[in-house]
């Protein structure tokens, strides 16, 4: 699998960020130098006449070294720093956007492989549970036969499948739940029993929903899978305030 750093758009964005950061470092260095020169109370060198002569001869005049000139350069430098700081922040947001988009693509591509891995974990857990039950039954059989069992028990509290609060039980539940979610998402339509309101439906209603929609509700604890036929719970018709008062006064 290629890394995000090999993605063409991300590489280009990274290069742009590097250029911006280098420009920011150069501007910060210039700011420090200008502040130092201002603190040294510079003389008016080079003079305006010298700079003008250079300009008339087609050259580039040396930067002003007088206090006013240094302050103008310092203000321009700080303006550049402000612009570069904002640009860097925006460029990082661009890179985050590219990373998010590409991450979604790569995750979708590897989802099937991950489900297969989860299925292997589920099978391994089932094998471990069976093996541990066999180990316990061997020792129990010896004890039941009246013998003193000297075989060391291979049990751990965190690996107790009989305890719903043990680490292994919780993990097994998580793996099973993940696989159920994946299976539900892949189906065109499934039936769920609502545990909370959803749209114009109320708790207790049984609805046929698209797999991805049902999976989202189940994931957030708002519905559960069911084999019941779609139906709505019959609810009493609510009277209007006028009807209620009329009944009470009659």
Q: Could you explain the architecture of this structure?
A:
- This protein has 250 residues and is mainly alpha-helical.
- Among the domains are: 108 residues; 64 residues, Methane Monooxygenase Hydroxylase, Chain G, domain 1.
- The chain contains six helices and three strands; from the N terminus they run ααααββαβα.
- It has a three-stranded antiparallel beta sheet, covered by helices on one side.
- Helix 3 crosses helix 4 and helix 4 packs antiparallel against helix 5.
- The longest helix has 78 residues.
- It starts with 7 loop residues before the first helix and ends with a helix.
- The model has no long low-confidence stretch (mean pLDDT 89).
Report a brief summary of the structure.
This protein has helices spanning 8-39, 48-56, 67-144, 167-186, 211-219, 241-249; strands at 190-194, 206-209, 223-225. It is mainly alpha-helical and 250 residues long. The longest helix is centred in the middle third of the chain and has 78 residues, at 67-144.
List keywords for this structure.
3 strands, Methane Monooxygenase Hydroxylase, Chain G, domain 1, mainly alpha, 5% strand, 63% helix, 250 residues, three-stranded antiparallel sheet, elongated
Note the topology:
Layout: H1 8-39, H2 48-56, H3 67-144, H4 167-186, E1 190-194, E2 206-209, H5 211-219, E3 223-225, H6 241-249
Antiparallel strand pairs: 1-2, 1-3
Helix pairs in contact: 1-3, 3-4, 4-5
Number of helices: 6
How large a portion of the residues is in β-strands, by DSSP E? under 5%
Morphology call: elongated
- Structural class by secondary-structure content: mainly alpha
Q: Taking strands numbered 1, 2, ... along the chain, how are they ordered across the largest sheet? A: 2-1-3
**CA(first)-CA(last) distance:** 78 Å
Series of secondary-structure elements, N-terminal to C-terminal: HHHHEEHEH
How much helix is in the residues? Answer: 55-70%
Low-confidence stretches: none
Number of strand elements: 3
Mean pLDDT level: 89
Largest sheet entry? 3 strands, antiparallel
**For the CA atoms, what is the radius of gyration?**
37 Å
